[in-house]
Fold:
Amino acid sequence: MRRKLIAGNWKMNGLRQDGLDLARALAARIRGGGPDCDWLVCPPAQLLIPVGEAIGGSGIALGAQDCHTEAAGAHTGDLAAPMLADAGCSFVIVGHSERRTDHGESDALVKAKAAAAQAAGLTPIVCLGETEEQREAGRALEVIETQVTGSMPGAAEPLVVAYEPVWAIGTGKVATPEDVAEAHAHIRGLLGGIFGAEAAEAIRVLYGGSVKPNNARDLRALADVDGGLIGGASLKADDFLAIANAVPAG
Ligand code: PGA
Structure:
């Protein structure tokens, strides 16, 4: 049984006080008996350590939003996976569409980042998803196949995959449950081809893209959706909790 993972991607949002307020509100609510699932917050890098302290003992895991492929070296402005582990992270998002677009990240680079994360003991959350143009051209599944084939690290464990159609991220447009179910089944089949069916069954595949409290319930019935990667709605403790309540463990 794959346990649901509700992950918040705070992106480039939050000064110190905002991050602390949000982290403390979440920790207090979850310590007090939140929904039974795995929790993760991925704040911007400057907040990793204070947020990690604020959520300590709450059961909420800490994750980063990116890492370098190498463990150390002359790479100004980058953070290595061992540094993130040292800062208290247990997860790191790699290959988010905003990085693929803003920084031209290729599948090969994402794969190397995911491998670096695993080598540092972190669970990579490998993101992928088609653009609107690709979906309208009927190429969504083909694009997903290229990304899955090109972006996965060598080991099936620890690994989380996030299907995030680019056109649904931050737009308020949500993929239909049918489209999500089709994409997730396709991804799991492809993971089976890479890692073997048994290993693929254990990999959590999240959905992301404009998940809000009022649409999270639609994802609840989908067997292959193992939780959500939540952007905008993860910046409000109430919304983040409401989404988790709509996508319960099991
Ligand atoms: P969104 O972002 O929920 O704001 O659409 C999701 C993501 O990019 O992970």
Summary: The chain has a mean pLDDT of 95. DSSP finds eleven helices and eight strands in the chain.
